[in-house]
Specification:
By secondary structure, the chain is of the alpha/beta class. It has eleven helices and eleven strands. Strands 1-2-3-4-6-8-11 form a seven-stranded mixed sheet, with helices on both faces. A four-stranded mixed sheet has the order 5-7-9-10. Strand 2 and strand 3 form a beta hairpin. Helix 9 runs antiparallel to helix 10. The longest helix is centred in the middle third of the chain and has 19 residues.
Amino acid sequence: MVSSYKVIVFPMSGRMEKQGGVGIIVLDRPPANSYDYAFLRSFASAIDDLRADEDIHAVVVSSASEKFFSAGADVSAFAKGTTRSRVMTATLAHEAFRKMENTPILFIAAISGHCLGGGFELALACDLRFAAEGSYQIGLPETNLGLFPGSGGTQRLPRLVGLSKGLDMILSATTMTPAQASETGLVDRLFEDAAACKQGAIDYATRIAAGPSVALGHAKLAVTQGFGAPLDLGLALEREAISRVFVSQDANEGIKAFGEKRKAEFKGE
């Protein structure tokens, strides 16, 4: 596994860092990491590059801002744009966020600042959400603007917290602190500060990247794509996933190591 540290700048959205088998997308569009069409194109490009990189087996999405993870869609850009440009921005957000879910790589959102609207929808599209303690807000306040969460929030939030709870949160434009989000199930792990949160996400991702990442990646797809589907469809997805894993070098190494009573040396292949 590659151990070098590398930084690649993505215009309009931030930068991508590579640390061993972990890719780190750092959102960096001051002041609030609000996204427009150009930002989303850059973000989607970063995801494409990471998932095509054979050395990357897990990804952390973080922010360069101390105050914001992301405030979501750039409302000022919406105000200046046409109906078509607004619709296409929302469409691109759907496509970019879906890339994370459809990739057999773990994505973790490391949240340590306001995570609102489309910014929270981005975090919801990640597989796990880690957050730092603080007084900042997390939620979907779009109905305050006469809109509703249109970048996946109406589908992902209810799947996470339940139909009635999710609907209530969306209609009421509910926002909450990280501690409240953790109690509600929106956040999977809570850390004492921003540095601990980002490092905790990187450490978790590093463990995944160093393990049998082929199996872990396909397990992710089986779980996320099968969740909410009819049982027979979910089981069919599982069979397809395990069939692909059985032919991997990691599976052969794991089975061989078990028989030889030694620790397996996985290579993510």
